Amino acid sequence: MSNLIAIAYPDVATTTRVRDRLLELQRERLIILADAAVAEKKPDGKIKLHQLNSTTGGGAAMGTLWGGLIGMLFLAPLLGMAVGAATGAAAGAATDVGVNDAFMRDLGQRLQPGGAALFLLVTQSTPDKVIVEVAPFGGEIIQTSLSEEAEADLREAVRHVQAVAEQ
Fold it and tell me: What percent of the chain has pLDDT over 70?
């Protein structure tokens, strides 16, 4: 089971640095992420999502393959590939995997203009090692799917690491 953790940061650059650091920690096997996405609140109030995994490209590739095969049956492989790619890309773009896009947009509305939030679906982690790596970036935990006790423990661990870093 994955746990959702959403952390707000003052800007998208900091949020992206934290996400990239977590991806490095994943390569070191200290955390396993099912998904990581950034929601940025633009100065005009619009929310832009920066997804880690795009389903559009994969859908287009599969659509091209199947469209080409079907097109060969009707002696129009190029037309079949073009139609298949367009259909596959549309289907891929409509597919929502990981953190729900509508949820990220709704929560993103609570951010200050120019701010951003990092959404993580954490499958497994070594909290004592991961928190030490990301707490110095700051941020505020704004939502989790953890139990109240586990969320309180997480907040306290982050506060402790930030206090030690400030000394």
Answer: 72
Q: Are residues 48 and 59 in the same domain?
A: no
pLDDT digits (tens, 9 = 90+) for 22-71: 999 999 999 999 889 999 999 999 999 988 765 445 555 665 655 655 65
The domain spanning residue 29 has which CATH number? 3.30.70.260
Confidence of residue 115 (pLDDT cuts 50, 70, 90): very high
Q: Which residues pair with 122 in a beta bridge?
A: 3, 33
**Distant-in-sequence contacts of 102-111, Cβ < 8 A, 24+ apart:** 104/37, 104/39, 104/47, 104/49, 105/39, 105/47, 105/49, 107/6, 107/39, 107/142, 107/143, 108/39, 108/40, 108/41, 108/47, 108/49, 109/41, 109/47, 110/8, 110/142, 111/8, 111/39, 111/41
Instruction: Return the pLDDT at 72.
Output: 57
Which helix (H) or strand (E) is 123 found in, with range?
A: strand 116-125
Report how many domains make up the chain.
2
Domain that holds residue 108: 3-52+98-166
Burial of 58 (0-12, 13-18, 19+ CB in 10 A): middle
